[in-house]
Amino acid sequence: MLFKLAARNVRRQIGSYIIYFITVSLTIALIFAINNMLYSDVMGQLTIRFGDIARMSLMFVTFILCIIMAFVLSYATNFLLRKRKKEFGLYLTLGMSRGNVLAVFAGETAITFLVSLAVGILIGLAVYQAVMVIFINFIGFDYAPAGYSGAGFLWTIVMVAGMFVLSSVASLGYLRFARITALLQGGKKAEKNVRIPLVWLVVFLLSVAGLVVSAIMFIDWMQLPDFWAHFGSLAAILVALFASMFFLPLSLTKVVFWLILKRNCCAFGGTGRFTARQLSSRLSSNAVMMGAVSLLLAVAIVGPNIFMSMTGSINNDIDNLYLYDISCETYPSIDVGGEYPETGADYYANTLEYIEEYADIRAYADIWIYNRELPPVEEDGYYAENRYEYFIAESQFRALCALLGYQLPDLNGGYIECTMAGYYDERTFGYTPMQGSQGECVGRLVCPYEIIDFNVSEWKVVPDEQTNEYHKYLRMLAVMLESSDYDAITLREILYESGIGNFEVKENERMANISQLGLFLLGDMYISVVFVLLSIAILALKILSMVSDDRKYYRELWRLGASEGSLMRSLVVQILFLFLMPFLVPLLLNFPLYSAIKILFGQSVNFSGVAVALQLAGFSAFILAVFAVYFVASCVVAWRDIRKNIRVSDS
Fold first, then answer.
1. Could you say which of 335, 401, 463, 567 is the most buried, measured as most Cβ atoms within 10 Å of its Cβ?
2. Distance CA 409, CA 428 (A)
């Protein structure tokens, strides 16, 4: 009987449960998608590369978010309970025991959870595939339809069960100890007018100024060469930024409604004035909620956009750090007089064969770097020894420069002094001719960073025959490929296992960095989406609670002759205003965020202002779409409640 009563109550209260149902279903879909991803083949490859930290970090985030979700759902459950407290008080009055009432309510939430679990998993099947497609494309892996995991399914059931238990404890505790009179008595709230409007005007102006100034200071802080040494300044900037974001929507609303209600030029009558009064009367009670939602939405917008924009910066850094598609540096064995032993004479020949099995070679350069020891010198009381001078044969260096599209000037019997530019310096060749003759310096060439081994920052390019006088110091192979579309991970492993030398495969390094960034992005977006869902769900439930308390006012307006259309418009305006107000600050935050991204990653060759603007607009549109879903659901539920109350009282 108790289960039948619980099932009947769920059917009868389906409108009240819709926000609860949407939130639980969507969060379960996200949990299911992430849990399956933790046990996917892609995560297995990332675990091999980065260790278990990748999987464990996402699992830890999931557990923490489940606890947060449980408390938010507990808030939703309490909303449903308080909305129906007279009904439960009536159950107790009619002779039902508290245990029976607890069982009925627990049965209702359990039914809702089970239905949400089924719907959430169905949605999660599609969400998982979508997340995998986005993630795989982001990190550059080959896409294959992702299979589902039994372990991921099981963990989802366990986590959802834990969420259900945690969210139900507080609500059941309320019913367990509440008095019948407290349940039967409806709470009443008095309206509050805007007090000290000039103070709120000052708060609004200070909030706007604080938002602008703190954003400018944050951008200036990022441009400091040693910005992390000024961490105290960052903390002060963030405090000012968060405080401004918290008070801006509240103070703006206070000022606007003070103007509407107190100034004749802005006053209006009918249900419009009723709408303004109802919104104004709830501002103080909604202050913390609106500020908290604004902060959560701001975090949800900032984090993913920063990580998404880092892709171009990583590509730029990889292109600057790794000039060649594949390179290897090998030091000769000292015990054979600086020469390779016979067994190693064809090392690089074998290397080229390995490479050609995976990718077509466009060009390569096989060079030697030579050195000779210089006599010790004494300067300013310091005795310097173990000094060396480095040389590269002209023909070999020409081949190396040709890989990067540079034609080395003629030596004309002399030599060229070369230096390596710094990491942040110009990445092109810079040549300065000199007035030199036979055996003298004929020019100075500044080369891109990492053109040869980083231990050699200065060298001379000399005629080929002159290198016979020097010792072989380092052998280097640089390869340029026809395309970057090849299995860089496997090729890197094969070259590494060959034991020839220290191989660097550009695409492998790029994928490693992008994969690491992808994991951070995945975790951040996971947290951001959950924050968006939960914050908007709290907002929706708070609004529905307010509307439920206002039913008597709508009933009085109906009795005074207001039409259903005017009442519905008043309701929609109230809900729309309360939904959009917390979105104002995150929306405005896109402008300084665009400037910050431009400063952080503007030097990237892949940076596009239009692309970043579209990216920011895309994340904001996603949040707005979630707003729209909850807004429509809130309007439908609230209007059904108001309309039902009007018609019952009318009859």
1. 567
2. 15
